[in-house]
Structures are given as structure tokens and as C-alpha cells.
Design goal:
This protein is an alpha+beta fold. Helices cover 17% and strands 32% of the residues. It folds into five domains: 7-153, no CATH class; 162-403; 408-504, Immunoglobulin-like; 513-669, Lamin Tail domain (Immunoglobulin-like, Sandwich), CATH 2.60.40.1260; 673-759, Immunoglobulin-like (Sandwich), CATH 2.60.40.4070. A seven-stranded mixed beta barrel has the order 1-2-3-4-5-7-6. Strand 39 (740-747) and strand 40 form a beta hairpin. The longest helix has 20 residues, at 333-352.
Length: 761
């Protein structure tokens, strides 16, 4: 079964907590025995799984199955990894390639790591999602586990506009110590994978951005904000102090990811591994009272990043501000007591049945229950969770302090990177000062003319748990001159002035909307086996843009996307790409945007998908198409004689489109295809694409989970082509349907297709 579902739907439901999920794994008993006898092996064995929760009830065959983890490999209660695309290349399960099933054998409560991941999610930090699952293997109950979202390309796709950059898994001894300027000095050198294991773009094996970060930490740390999202790193260190998580960069030089986002040319810090938290301790250190500034290290080696950050008042003040804000708004027992009681009751039955839970440290149900509370200590678990939170908050209230008055602009979000003439640019800045901020000013000039300034307004969101929203300053400027704008911000307090960016300016392109008249998506090839190669000699997928207008169009700042929930997926770079009237432009959709200005960060799907050309405002669709299943070396595009009609073509990149001349062509042998509805879940309207390979009668219907007919959206003859039908969630009596799971049924004379849909009222 090949499962690829819309990402908005997938990530909403895969880690849903409304009911306890169940994962049933079926594997050859001999393979399971071999795994337990070879615990250090990462060999994947074929298995079948059935996954069910409140939204999903699916079975999948040929899933890779193995042990995972470090100390858990030798534990009685082991942790497992499921890999959906190992035996079936490119397959995903609700947009998840891998599932990490953690046994949490160290934790008598089986909750600590999930509390940490949920907390990151609640404060708006990019991090893994997690949910509890009951795991069965070959019909036997293996216990209560936590399923933790794997950090990989699907994680990047969900969290970053540009997901084509390099991702490094950083594990012991990943201390960011300087080893010279040569990127090859940072290739795995402790063993084949450690300490910096490149997880994406492995063919290029490019460590230059990591080497640049480490070189700047060592040689010119005053430029650190130009290469690292310092805010995210400080939030990571703040949450580790709050949760007592020591299996990290600061104490153990271990367990974090670094992602280089090409869009900003910045490295982002991503948290990883939180089972050793909330008073789990093996070093006789009280993590509830440890000093947040001096902290502890397990060895005598340095930690160059934190040594620099905590030597600078501005970074130490921001770190202090984060901790202070979190303990006042979200990290305290007033917020957590009821939550912990709810989780304890919800998990109690599954934990009681979990006999594997008792085998490593003899944890009983008394341990399970008591470890959530105040009066508890057993072996390496030094406090109950509530006791830890109370002690951590109390000690921090005595330890936190600020130095100086200098304000800090630590996050800036412009509404546009390119903008249409006379449109409004909104600037949102998060600004903090130890004794407040007097003013935040936006400075800009267009085409190197005189500087113009406007003050932002302090506009915090009340009762938010997200610190950036609490520190928010907003302002709007109408861009009434065409050209290139340079801009920066300043924050002022008692004469102290902070600048963003620290050096230089940000750039904004202001475009005349009349220039865009006539540009369209003209042709696409989603499976290029032998038609045309790019400048690297590679047969990559491509999209052709045409200018049917009368004026040249500069494409700087326009977007292409294959994601209906992310219109700014890939941007034409600011490099004077001009398409003349009646000229064609090929864009390589190869998920390799580092190859050049006309290479995107996504690939086309030969099974069909949505693509769009989007205005520089990031929200206006200039042209779009939802296409069905494609055949190798047959393109899909506008018919020369009628540009509103799309057909299968003999590929003609760079020239006028040519329709196929034979009705017996291979493309006509394709079956009708029901595409992916989007958005999913939806409210109030969902788009339902489908493709018809010949003129025939079709019926497109909605039924509910009980099989009851709701409405016919189409019931008539249709010509060959790609269609998009909308459903507003009503039945055939024009009554709004209740929330729930529905099914779309496409029925023709030859096939019946169906797909699941979730309506949220």
C-alpha cells in the first residue's frame, strides 16, 4: 500500500492525543530473535504494521523494522524504529518516513520526554512532535511507548520554507571545537558517523556551512548572528535548564541537530532526545537547583559556543528573559499539576499492563504513580515531576539576574521579501530590554534615495505563552516606488541603540504588478527519463514558464510551489531573471536549489499534484494547475490553439507546445485518478482534484464513515482532462455536515477510487 497524504492533514492526526494510539507489528519470529541477539546492528527487517488512533486505521506492508537507541539497546524494554521507505523507495505513512518508538525504560512515569516535546510545541520552538502508543509485536503486548517524530527531510518540509539545505545530526563528542577552516576537518572524525553526521544532500557531502559556523565561533564571534539563529539556540539552553535535560550540548556535548536554511543562509538549532529530564540523574547533580549560567560539564573540555554566549551580557540577558517569561507563563505547577494528573490517569491502564516496564529497574505501579508527584525518589529518578518543577522554579527565582540596559532585537519577520508596488509591508519585531524599550524604528530607502523612518508600535499578544509574541512591535509601510529597497531596524533605550541586522541591510524588491500580465505555467514534465538534461547533465523534472504578454517580466521574488499550504515554497532569486514577451523559461524541479538560480527545492510527483506560480506578495496565485498521473517523457501543458485547455504533449521545452498526434499513445492508457484533497482536514471548503483519461460518465460522491451517501458533487459525462471540484461540507439538502471522517468516491465505467477526508466544524 503506497501512502502519501497531504502534509497539513498528516501532521495534525499522526501525533493526535485524543485517544491512545496502537501500533501492531508483525515480523518473522526468527528476525525478531536475531535482532535481540545482535542489539548493536542497524539491519532492517521486513515487517507489516497496523496503526490506529482517532483518525487513522491503516495497514502497511514491507516496513523496515529494527532496534534503535543507545543504552536502550541493552535494556530489556527496547526501543524500535519503523522505516516506511526502506523497502519501498519514496513511500511515506501520512507524510512520515520513519517512526521512533521509544521504550522510555529509564523513566518510571513514561511521560518525561513527551512533556519536553509538548512544551517545545507550546512555546513555538521548532521541534519534534510526540504521542503515546501501545506497541504489539506478533500479537504480544510490548508495552507503553512514546512515538517521537523523526528529524529528517519530512520534518524539514513541515518546519521550513526552504527544506533543501544540509541537516547534521550532532552526537557525542559534538562540542563545536575549532579544527581549522577546511570543511573536510569536520567530516565524521570520531567514527564513521560522529560527531557531525550529514543526513541530507549526502551526494554533495558539503560541510562548508558547518565549518563557517565553527570558525566564526572561534575567530570572530561578534559575527555569530550572521550565521546562527542565536534566539533558537538560547531557547534550547533555556528549556534544558527548565526541564533538567542534561543529555545535550552544554553538559554532554551531545544530542542536537543543526540545519542550514539556504533561504536565510542561517543555521538553525533543533532539539533532540529528552528521556533524561525532570530529575533523571546519573551524576549526583541536582538539576533542579543547578546554576543556569555557570552550569556543569561532564569533562574538562570546552564548550566554545556557550562559553561565548554566556560571556556576553546581551545574550545572557536574553537567555534570562526567556527563562523568566517561561516560568511566569507556562513552566510552573499552576500550569502543570492538572495536566500531569490527566496524563497519569490516561496512561495508567496501559502502564499497568506493560510488564516490560518492570524488567530493567523493577519499577512498580507505585513508582509510576508516585513519580508524577512530589514525594518520590528511586534509584536514578531523584524527584517526582511536580517536585522537580517546584524546586526548579524556586531556585531560578533566586538565581536569575540582568546586566546593563541595552535592548536586543532578536527576531524580525517582514511580511514580504518582494512586494507589489503600492502594497503594504508589515514588519513584526520581537525586542527585549532589561529595563524596557523606548522606541523601535524602521529605516528604509528605495533605489539609494534618502532614508525614510517610521516608528513601530508595541503590540504584545495578551496571555500568550510564546515569548516572541509578548515582545512584539509592529509597523506598516506602503511601498510606493518601484525598485530595490534597503532596510534595517533600530531599538533605543536611554541612548543605547541596538541594530538589526548587526551589519549591512536587508533587501526588498518592489515590483510593478503590470509587469506580471501574461506570465503563465505553460508545460511540465514530472518524469524526465530521456528528454532533456540540465547544465549538470541530469535528467531532472521541469516546469516551463511562458510570457504571453507584451512587456518583459523580471521574475525576482516570484514563487513556485507544490504545496497548497505553503505558497512561498521556492522563490526566484534576486538575480535579474527576465522573461521577454513570447519567451519560454525552464525551471528545474529537482530539489537541488544549490545547483543554480533555476533549480527549485522541490520535485514534481509523477503520481500527480498541485503546482502554482505565486506573486511576490506570497499570497496571490498568478497561475496554478492540479495534474493527474504522468507517464515518462510525456509532458502536460497548454494546448497551442486554446491556452485554457491542458493536454498531454510531446515535450517541447523552450518552444510552442505540440499535442500528441495518436490516440493510441501510452498516456491514454492511464487510469482515471482521484488526486489529493486540500486542505485536509478542512473548514469550510476543500478542493478535490481528479483526472479523466477519456470521455465517459463519472460520479464523484461523498459518503460518511457509516457508508451513508452524503452528496454527489459530479454525476455526468466528462471529457479527458484534469478537474478541480470544491465541497463546502454540506449534504444534498444543503445542510452543514457534522465534524468527522468522510470518504470521496470517484467512480467511472472502469475504476473506483477513494480517499479519506476530515471535516472540522
Amino acid at each position: 500500500m503506497l501512502l502519501n497524504f497531504d502534509s497539513t492533514f498528516s501532521y495534525e492526526v499522526h501525533y493526535d492525543d485524543s485517544e491512545l494510539a496502537v501500533v501492531e507489528i508483525t515480523v518473522d519470529p526468527d528476525d525478531l530473535t536475531w535482532m535481540y541477539n545482535h542489539v548493536e546492528s542497524d539491519s532492517l527487517h521486513p515487517a507489516s504494521i497496523h496503526f490506529s488512533n482517532a483518525y487513522i486505521d491503516e495497514s502497511v506492508d514491507l516496513v523496515g523494522f529494527r532496534l534503535r537507541g543507545n543504552t536502550s539497546r541493552n535494556a530489556d524494554k527496547k526501543s524500535f524504529k519503523l522505516d516506511f521507505n526502506h523497502f519501498v523507495s519514496g513511500r511515506e505513512f501520512y507524510d512520515v518516513e520513519k517512526m521512533n518508538l521509544n521504550g522510555e525504560h529509564n523513566d518510571p512515569s513514561i511521560i518525561r520526554s513527551k512533556l519536553s516535546w509538548d512544551y517545545y510545541q507550546s512555546i513555538g520552538v521548532v521541534s519534534s512532535r510526540a504521542s503515546h502508543v501501545k506497541v504489539y509485536i506478533n500479537g504480544d503486548y510490548y508495552g507503553l511507548y512514546i512515538s517521537i517524530e523523526h528529524i529528517d527531510d519530512t520534518f524539514l518540509k513541515r518546519n521550513y520554507e526552504n527544506d533543501s539545505g544540509n541537516l547534521w545530526k550532532c552526537i557525542w563528542p559534538a562540542d563545536l571545537t575549532y579544527r581549522g577552516d577546511d570543511p573536510e576537518n569536520y567530516h565524521p572524525y570520531h567514527d564513521d558517523e560522529r560527531p557531525y553526521n550529514l543526513k541530507t544532500n549526502k551526494d554533495e557531502w558539503n560541510y562548508s556551512k558547518l565549518a563557517r559556523l565553527i570558525s566564526i565561533i572561534h575567530q570572530s564571534p561578534d559575527s555569530l548572528e550572521m550565521v546562527l539563529d542565536v534566539k533558537e539556540a538560547l531557547q534550547y539552553f533555556a528549556v534544558n535548564v527548565l526541564t533538567g535535560s542534561w543529555d545535550d550540548y552544554r553538559f554532554l556535548r551531545n544530542n542536537y541537530y543543526l540545519y542550514h536554511n539556504p533561504e536565510e543562509d542561517l543555521i538553525h538549532w533543533i532539539p533532540y532526545d529528552y528521556d533524561n529530564s525532570f530529575s533523571i540523574d546519573w551524576f549526583d547533580i541536582d538539576w533542579a537547583t543547578i546554576d543556569p549560567y555557570s552550569y556543569a560539564v561532564i569533562d574538562s573540555d570546552g564548550r566554545p559556543l556557550t562559553e561565548y554566549l554566556f560571556s556576553q551580557d546581551r545574550y545572557k540577558n536574553l537567555f534570562t528573559h526567556f527563562i523568566e517569561f517561561y516560568i511566569n507563563t507556562s513552566f510552573n505547577n499552576a500550569e502543570w499539576n492538572d495536566l500531569l494528573d490527566t496524563w497519569r490517569f490516561a496512561l495508567m491502564a496501559a502502564a499497568d499492563d506493560d510488564q516490560w516496564r518492570t524488567m530493567d529497574y523493577g519499577f512498580t505501579m507505585w513508582d509510576f504513580n508516585a513519580s508524577y508527584g512530589y514525594d518520590y525518589q528511586n534509584q536514578h529518578t531523584k524527584k517526582g515531576i511536580k517536585a522537580f518543577i517546584a524546586d526548579r522554579v524556586s531556585s531560578l527565582n533566586d538565581q536569575l539576574y540582568y546586566s546593563g540596559e541595552e535592548p536586543f532585537i532578536y527576531e524580525v519577520i517582514p511580511s514580504h521579501r518582494s512586494i507589489i508596488l503600492n502594497d503594504t509591508l508589515t514588519i513584526s519585531a520581537s525586542v527585549f530590554g532589561p529595563i524596557g524599550v523606548d522606541d523601535v524604528i524602521f529605516h528604509y530607502r528605495v533605489n539609494s534615495n534618502d532614508w525614510i523612518t517610521t516608528s513601530l508600535n508595541y503590540n504584545p499578544i495578551e496571555n500568550t505563552k510564546i515569548v516572541e509574541e509578548n515582545d512584539r512591535w509592529d509597523g506598516m509601510v506602503t511601498m510606493d516606488s518601484e525598485g530595490e529597497a534597503e532596510w534595517y531596524l533600530t531599538a533605543i533605550k536611554n541612548g543605547d541603540v541596538e541594530r538589526f541586522p548587526t551589519y549591512g541591510y536587508k533587501i526588498l524588491t518592489i515590483l510593478n504588478p503590470n509587469d506580471a500580465n501574461g506570465i503563465l505555467i505553460n508545460e511540465l514534465l514530472a518524469k524526465n527519463d530521456d528528454v532533456i538534461v540540465d547544465e549538470y547533465g541530469e535528467y531532472d523534472d521541469w516546469i516551463e514558464i511562458v510570457n504571453f504578454g507584451e512587456n518583459p517580466v523580471e521574475l525576482d521574488g516570484y514563487y513556485l510551489t507544490d504545496n497548497s499550504s505553503n505558497f512561498t515554497k521556492w522563490s526566484f532569486p534576486i538575480s535579474n531573471i527576465v522573461i521577454e514577451p513570447n519567451e519560454y523559461l525552464i525551471v528545474w524541479t529537482d530539489n537541488d536549489d544549490e545547483q543554480g538560480d533555476l533549480h527549485t527545492n522541490f520535485k514534481l510527483s509523477a503520481s500527480g499534484e498541485f503546482i502554482a506560480l505565486v506573486s511576490p506578495d506570497g499570497s496571490t496565485i498568478i497561475d496554478s494547475i492540479t495534474f493527474g498521473q504522468q507517464t515518462a517523457d510525456i509532458s502536460f501543458g497548454r494546448v497551442e490553439t486554446d491556452q485554457d485547455v491542458w493536454d498531454f504533449l510531446t515535450p517541447t521545452p523552450g518552444t510552442i507546445n505540440q499535442s500528441l498526434n495518436t490516440i493510441e499513445s501510452s498516456i491514454l492508457a492511464l487510469n482515471p485518478k482521484l488526486g489529493l484533497p486540500y486542505p485536509n482536514p478542512f473548514n469550510p471548503i476543500v478542493d478535490i482534484p481528479f483526472f479523466i483519461n477519456k470521455k465517459e460518465h463519472i460520479q464523484l460522491s461523498i459518503i460518511n464513515i457509516l457508508g451513508e451517501h452524503i452528496i454527489d458533487l459530479v454525476n455526468e459525462n466528462k471529457n479527458i482532462g484534469t478537474y478541480n471540484i470544491q465541497w463546502n461540507g454540506s449534504n444534498n439538502m444543503n445542510e452543514i455536515c457534522p465534524s468527522g471522517i468522510y470518504f470521496i468516491i470517484l467512480e467511472t465505467e472502469s475504476i473506483v477510487n477513494s480517499t479519506k477526508l476530515v471535516l472540522l466544524q
